[in-house]
Structure formats: C-alpha cells, structure tokens
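Subject: sequence -> structure tokens, single chain

Hey, anyone have a minute? Need the predicted structure for the following. Not urgent.
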Amino acid sequence: MFDPVIAPSGTLLGLLQRGRGDGTLHALTAPRAEALAALNHCVLRDPRHDWQVENRSLYYARLYLDLSGELDEIERHLFDAEDILDDCESRTGLALAVLGHLASYGRRDALELLRRYAASGTNWAWALDELALRDDDAGLRALAVPVLARFPADPEGEAALVAQVRDAFEPRPWRLWADDSRESIATRVRAAQEQGSFDRWQRQLRPTGPRPGWSVRAVFEWAQQGLDRGAALHVPAARCLTAVAGPEDRPEILQAARDGGDGARCTALRYLADSNDPDALELIEAAATGGTVTVAEAAVDAFERMRSVAAVERARRWAERPDALGAAAGRMLACRGGTKDSELVLGALREAVRGEGPDAPTLWTLVDGAGRLGIVCAAPVLRHVYRETASSHLRGRAARALAATDPSFPAGFAVECLWDCEESTREVAARHAETGDARVVDQLRRLASDPAEEAEVQTAVRSRIGPDAPAV
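Reply:
Had a minute. Here:
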C-alpha cells in the first residue's frame, strides 16, 4: 500500500484525514454534499500511515450518523472488480470497520452490507469478525455455507481451513458452526478445530533457538545466522547472553562489541548496555560512528534503553551532536532527564520539527518529554505538531503535552479534542476542556451515554458531570 496523500490541515479533507475533532465540527457546518464527499474519500482511501494502530473507524461512523450519510459509495468500493485483484486488507479494512460501528448503532443497511461482503468479498474474514461482534446467531449461521465453500475439500483446502479456524480473531462464528445442526458443516469445522489445537501442541514440542547449555560463541553464531537470513535476532540473543554468560566471558563479549561480525557485535552491545557495563558507552559511541548501518542502529537503540546515571550524564554531552546518537541523547533526556535538561530537550524538539517535519518518529518521545518536564516555551512547537501531524497518536501526545504546558489548552484545542478519533485524546479533553462552551457540555453528555465509547473516556467524563463533579 502506498503512503496516503494528506491534504493541508486547513482544509475539511485534511482535518478529516487526520481524525481531528475540528474535522467533525467543520463537516457539520459545511454543505452536506461536500462533507459527505470528504468523508467518503477518507473511508475509501485509508489516510492512516499505520492503519493497524491508528483509530478512525468510530470517528467516521459517528460522522456518518450525524450527516445521515448513505452507504452507496462504500458499497461500490467493496464490490468493485478491484476487490478480486487487490487482496490487501488495507483496501477495505477501514470501510468494513466503519460498517461494523454503524451496525452497532442500529444501521440495518450496514449490517446487510457486511453480510453480503462476508459471503462474497475478498477480505471476508475481516467482515466476519465485525459480524461476530454485532450479528445474531441466525445471521452468522446463514454464512456457514458460503464461507466454507471458500475451502476446497482437498488436502490444501483443508489445511487452509485449519489455519483460518486456528488463527481467527473472533472465534464466535466457528464455535456456532461447530454446533450447527447440519452435520456436514459441524463435522468439518470440528475437525479443523481439533487439527488446529494439535498443530499448536506440536509447535510447543519443537521449540527453535537457543537451548540451555549454549556457550557465548554459540549465541553469537545464532545471532549472525539470523542476520544472514534477514532476521535481526540480536535482541533475543542478548537476553540469552544474560542466561549463559559469566564473569569469565566478559573479555570475549567486549571483543565482539569492538570488532565482531554484525550479528555478534549488535548482540554484545545490547548485552553490555542492558547490564550497564562500564565500557558500554565508549563501545556504543565507537559503533555508532564507525560501524555498519546495522551496527550503528543497534548501538543507538542500545544506548537509548540504558537507565544508568552515567548514561544520562553522557546524553547531556551528546545531545547537541548532529547525528543519530545526538538525537537519541535528546530522547533519553526527554524520558529521564531533569528540569535542568529542558533547554536541551526543547532544542532537540525544535531541530526535529525543522529537519524532519511534524511526522518525524523522534517527535513521539520529545513531545512526551516536553510535557513531562513542563517546558512552557515548547507550547508553540507543540501546537504546530498538533495541527500538522498526520499521525493521530502523535497528535494525542501533543495534546497531553499541551495540557501540561499551555494555559490556553482548556479553552482551545481541548474543546475540539472531545471529537478526536483517538480515545486517549478524548480522555484528555474530557478532563481539561472548559465547559463555558455549550458544545462541550453536549458532547460530554453524548460521550457518557454512548455505548461504543471507551470506559476510560466515560470515567473522565463522569468526573466532570457526575453527581460529585463540579456543576457544568
């Protein structure tokens, strides 16, 4: 899947793509046709950079409800000929998740679309998972025949069925079908369930990887073999060293950290950093500046995990370096530094935004650090990140940091955050948004009564509007 093209943050489409609360508020005041066009664009062309962790489905479903939106565009998208050619989950996953939420809100047309797609669509397993949470037993039983017809009654088809039953995210339909009154269906599903359980048991009897009694050299060789196959195993290998290495092995580990092969060197650096070895910091610096790309990245990652006072002191020396080690030092100070490190963290935050933009991965830690340290001067940068980032998770972190650094947050961004796509951001808003605006009170009441809302958000809302809360 290609990276999505995100519209400017000042446009309705850009706001909706980002999942910002202002997107909903603007859509409700825009011409309905324009708002629905932007909404459909988002649902049919998933705007998330990481669709597996960022939330949008409930946000878009609520907007469909508020706009009384039709589902014709979603239907055309699901049953388009491209569905046969493109089996990537990300093409239809967001649309199916939106339909799932709409079905839970009582939209019968959404439920029927999910049933049709589960019976004939390429991404049928996702649709079946949505139905497992919302459909009744009769609706699920009706899907047994078309779903099982996807698996031919030959060894290859039966193996695929076993894998599907074993790995199903929502097991409810398979359990229903295992007890189906139609013997041909029940027998086949029960056999697949039994074989899946047997497969899991066999895997437990055939563990791979290090065994008790391995030597330090054997662990290094295992890490290198993994790297040769394209699998980075230095992290589990370092944990193995903790179990097998003794004081007498330290010279060998130090030598590997200086000039061993990439697998051994990455493993040794990780092990020395995790054990706070006195030579770890010097070896990490040497690897970060003179090692291969693989070794340098492992060295920086190992340093960033360190918890010692010496590591924090070294981070203060390295924070202004114009390289990956300097960036890691800034992140370490954001996580573990003190108030005296505020200037260094602020400098790292500004440099990251200037150099890499509002979606830089390093910003996640730096934004958290600005909030943790209460860096008031960081508020303008945090507001920029909040407005411009395409990551709803990073925007939520910026909101939490603004709550700790920006006096204008309760009357500003906190208000729109009540409509945000991320539940953690709505929770921050529920705790901080000023209630002088009538929209805030109405939205707090809506969140408190919405069965689809997360418990943490509703707890925060009740702290504001419950019987023991101050009057709003």
